Amino acid sequence: MKILQVMAPDEFEVREVPTPTPGPGEVLMRVEAVNTCVQWDLHLRHNEPMFVGHQFTYPYTPGQPGHEATGHVEAVGEGVTDLAPGDRICVWRDQGHDVWGCYAQFVILKAGNAIKIPEGLPAEAWASIELAMCLGAPFKGLRQVGAIEGKVFGVTGLGPAGLIAVQMAKAEGAAEVIGFDLLPERRDFALTLGADAAYDPTAVSAEEFPLRGRLHAGIDCHGARASVQWLMDHTADAVALFGVQREDYTYALRHAGLTVLGYKGHFYESAEYARDLIVAGKLNMAPLVTVTLPLERYGEGIDLLDQRKALKVCYKPWE
């Protein structure tokens, strides 16, 4: 089978290796499509640590950092009873970057990390269910504090995560969903996916967005300190933090009464939530894929991400 391996920053190979056999509690998935994860792919290209204390080692684990993937069960290992060959599945939980990843024609998954999905929709609509699952967790927290239905809801950072968040907020019954991003093309794209309005947060006036005024709740999908602080300053009731956090944020006197929700991890029920939204037609991730390429053209796709000319790149290992 073919598998991609990042050998050094901005260097990769597509290798031929034996197809693995699933062990107890595992399944072998024939990969139909695998999407980029902008954070991992770009940080790996530039050898920039993802988190404080993190460090990349090259050559990187074969198949990594691919983890947003969909396909069909090819074979099952001993003890697997809830999945069978032919089942269409997605990877709902990142298995960790010390095991072979999904930039490959086949990948071994722990059976518990796969979720069944129906036939019918294209692979591009399903491959990033892991990202949608991650967003499902903070949305559950926001629902629990009554911060979405009937509210004016803000989303800062309109990359792939923010564009999924826009759709989830609409699905949850937000009265108005407003996106914020520095890039005009991303603001325009958010409008096509259901945002009621989209703004450059550095260009809005105090009359449009008074402090702790117009926005009732929101989610930050950027992670930068300036983005988080802006959302906290302009939101009255609750803010969820989803973007990768590398800096400290200040909860000041001006934020009194504001609920701040952190990210609590991966949950199967959040994957089911994302799957059900897709089936119901309330979450469409296919438009997030800017281009589809074979594995051999991995570098071209990462170039597009680096140049901000793509939101996600989808790789089809069998093409």
What does this 3D model show about the protein?
- The structure is a single chain.
- This protein has 319 residues and is of the alpha/beta class.
- It has 2 domains: 2-128 and 285-315, Alpha-Beta Complex (Quinone Oxidoreductase, Chain A, domain 1); 133-261, NAD(P)-binding Rossmann-like Domain (Rossmann fold), CATH 3.40.50.
- It has 7 helices and 15 strands.
- The chain has helices at 38-46, 129-144, 160-171, 184-192, 225-234, 268-279, 298-306; strands at 2-8, 11-16, 26-35, 68-76, 88-91, 106-110, 114-116, 152-156, 176-180, 197-199, 215-220, 235-241, 259-261, 289-293, 312-315.
- Strands 3, 4, 5, 6, 7, 14 and 15 form a 7-stranded mixed beta sheet that branches. It has a 6-stranded parallel beta sheet with strand order 10-9-8-11-12-13, with helices on both faces. Strands 1-2 form a two-stranded antiparallel sheet.
- Helix 2 (129-144) packs across helix 3 and helix 2 (129-144) packs across helix 6 (268-279).
